[in-house]
């Protein structure tokens, strides 16, 4: 896979969202921090079943990411390793994407869907985006509006999954994936 300038910007931004402590590397501890931020933002304790499930799924994402990218086995991922994995096609395979992201998004919605309607309103979307991905409130509101295709003020797992697929696999600079983490 060739890394276009647009994909490079997306990968760099995604790497930043993974790097919770900002040290320039992605490590398991970054995923632990992200999980704690998200569940805390929704008032969940560590022993809440939704918090446990989300943490488990997030660590599954970490495990998959580390297995595909940590080429020097130092238990951390550099931006160069992350990019290289895409070039080699190890992360950029749409057929394997859903296996990791569907359970993760289901667990995310179980935490972020505060009112239990199975979809995210704008305020729920803003809270999870800010807590987990460091997306500003204004950007998260704009993303929600872009993902709310029917204009009912709600987005679901399929909307998020389609946006994540587009983020990684579409070169459409105005598509839903391009704006998922705020402007690039």
Automatic annotation (TrEMBL):
A GO MF label: calcium ion binding
InterPro entries: EF-hand-dom_pair (IPR011992), EF_Hand_1_Ca_BS (IPR018247), EF_hand_dom (IPR002048)
Pfam families, alphabetized: EF-hand_7 (PF13499)
Domain EF-hand: 6-41, 135-170
SMART domains according to UniProt: EFh
Gene3D superfamilies: EF-hand
Domain of life: Bacteria
Protein name (database record): EF-hand domain pair
Higher taxonomy: Bacteria, Bacillati, Actinomycetota, Actinomycetes, Pseudonocardiales
């Amino acid at each position: 896979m060739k890394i276009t300038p647009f994909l490079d910007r997306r990968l760099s931004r995604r790497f930043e969202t993974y790097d919770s402590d900002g040290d320039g590397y992605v490590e398991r501890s970054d995923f632990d921090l992200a999980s704690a931020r998200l569940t805390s933002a929704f008032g969940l304790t560590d022993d809440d079943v939704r918090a446990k499930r989300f943490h488990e799924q997030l660590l599954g994402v970490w495990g998959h990411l580390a297995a595909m990218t940590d080429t020097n086995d130092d238990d951390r991922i550099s931006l160069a390793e992350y990019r290289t994995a895409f070039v080699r096609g190890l992360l950029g395979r749409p057929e394997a994407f859903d296996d990791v992201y569907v359970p993760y998004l289901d667990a995310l919605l179980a935490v972020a869907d505060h009112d239990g309607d199975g979809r995210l309103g704008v305020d729920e979307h803003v809270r999870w985006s800010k807590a987990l991905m460091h997306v500003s409130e204004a950007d998260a509101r704009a993303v929600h509006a872009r993902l709310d295709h029917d204009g009912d003020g709600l987005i679901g797992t399929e909307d998020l999954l389609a946006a994540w697929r587009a983020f990684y696999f579409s070169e459409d600079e105005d598509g839903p994936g391009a704006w998922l983490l705020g402007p690039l």
